Amino acid sequence: MVEDIATARPMAAISLTAARLSFAGAATFVVLLVALHFIKPEVDPSWHFISEYAIGDSGWIMEFAFLSLALSYVSLFVAIWSQLRTSAGRIGLALLLVSALGLTIAAVFTTDPITVSEDAVTTEGTLHSLGGTLGIAMPFAAASVGWKLARNPAWYSARRSLLWATGLAVVAFLFSFVSLGVMVSRSGGEFGPNVPVGWPNRIEIVVYSVWLMVVARQAMHLRRRNPETTGRTVAGRRA
């Protein structure tokens, strides 16, 4: 780490409208995901991925949920762009957009059933998987953005909430990644009722949504409290 001895630097104000959209988009996703557990009870949450709610009747609800979460990512990017001036912070913001692109692809292209054989995989299912792969950028975005905002003197009052939410996002990713790897290796790459990959998948995406809501909520609080000065930073540390 190096010391940044620069003087205070003016920055554009946080976008209150974008922060509100980000919070609303993430909240909408969580509400719709919970609702789908009751709307489509045939999709066992213990071993089906959330993407499978998009298959068949009422599938548009899951597609809309994905798009709502993508909107949350993009809106948060707009809301806090002015608050991150370091390379690491800007990389984190770029990864938010990569995650949004992945969610959009996942919404447009419906996944194949988890039990589909390799020779029956469709082009649409493959493209959906591509979207899911891009979504892996999210925990890295959360780690970079959350850490850099917590180090921004203007966000000092939100530091504890940011660090908690960011830590949970990273832990949720590691838990999902490791548990999925262990379960799949034990099952020989086969999915089914005896391979409970569904809950880690749900926990991970819900925690990401919580992270988005925490950051957006803190952005709204700071913007309302200091409408003229929230966008200003003082001398501090920079990575």
Please, could you describe this protein's structure?
This protein has one domain (2-238). Helix content is 63%, strand content 3%. It contains 7 helices and 2 strands; from the N terminus they run βαααααααβ. The chain has helices at residues 16-39, 59-80, 87-108, 123-134, 137-151, 159-186, 198-225, and strands at 2-4, 236-238. Strands 1-2 form a two-stranded antiparallel sheet. Mean pLDDT is 89; it is low at 1-11 and 229-239.
Ordered list of secondary-structure elements with their pairings:
Layout: E1 2-4, H1 16-39, H2 59-80, H3 87-108, H4 123-134, H5 137-151, H6 159-186, H7 198-225, E2 236-238
Antiparallel strand pairs: 1-2
Helix pairs in contact: 1-2, 1-7, 2-3, 2-7, 3-4, 3-5, 5-6, 5-7, 6-7
Question: What is the string of SSEs from the N terminus onward?
Answer: EHHHHHHHE
The total number of structural domains is 1
Please give the number of β-strands: 2
- The helical percent reads 55-70%
> Helices and strands: which structural class?
mainly alpha
Assign an overall shape. Answer: elongated
Mean pLDDT: 89
Number of helices in the DSSP assignment: 7
Q: What is the percentage of strand-forming residues?
A: under 5%
Unreliable stretches: 1-11, 229-239
Q: In angstroms, what is the radius of gyration? A: 19 Å
Largest sheet properties: 2 strands, antiparallel
- End-to-end Cα distance: 5 Å
Strand line-up of the largest beta sheet: 1-2
